[in-house]
Amino acid sequence: GRIIGKGTYGSVDIVENRVTKQLYARKRCQLSPDNLSGLKPFQREVKIMKMVAHRHVVRLVSAYVQDSCLNIVMSPLAQGTLRQYLDLPTMPQGSAPRIRSWVGCLSSALSYLHANRIRHADIKPQNLLVKESDVYISDFGISRIVSEPDSTSSSISPMTPMYAAPEIAQHQPHGRKADVFSLGCVVFEMLT
């Protein structure tokens, strides 16, 4: 399919269901025979995506391994990332009400994830997908399932430093509040 995004993990392209003609996004990650390190995060991401069902979280359609590639097919097929939207030279007409709506959608989705003991751990504009007036949380590659909603971890998170809570930057125990801090950074960026 046509590639619509690239990252350290691999690429995202467009795939079509041959029967329904429905378009989906497919995240692909190359596995090499001597390096199977990508398999565990892939399995964790698929497990987490199977657990969630929220209007503003991407939905898992299928996951499979083919030609030494790990594949995650998801819906909806977005028009782009929030990062691409924020990088536009000028904000489109009617942006303020849209941003207000997006903040509510993302807050609801993050609250849902936390209630289901899922820490995203990498909330940033590149992982937030935009489709028309909706926004979706995506990319659960470094997310974690925690035993208790309020539990903390002192493991070093590989998240993007610009959106990292101070406790992560200082290698201190951190919990779901770190996701909330990251969302706050995204909201601040949307408003400035």
From TrEMBL:
Q: Which UniProt keywords apply?
A: ATP-binding, Kinase, Nucleotide-binding, Serine/threonine-protein kinase, Transferase
Q: Which SUPFAM superfamilies match?
A: Protein kinase-like (PK-like) (SSF56112)
Say which family it is in. Answer: Belongs to the protein kinase superfamily. STE Ser/Thr protein kinase family. MAP kinase kinase kinase subfamily.
- Name the InterPro entries for this protein: Kinase-like_dom_sf (IPR011009), Prot_kinase_dom (IPR000719), Ser/Thr_kinase_AS (IPR008271)
Name of the protein in its database record: Kinase-like protein
SMART domains recorded for this chain? S_TKc
Which source organism does the UniProt entry give?
Lophium mytilinum
Q: What's the superkingdom here?
A: Eukaryota
Keyword Cytoplasm among record annotations = no
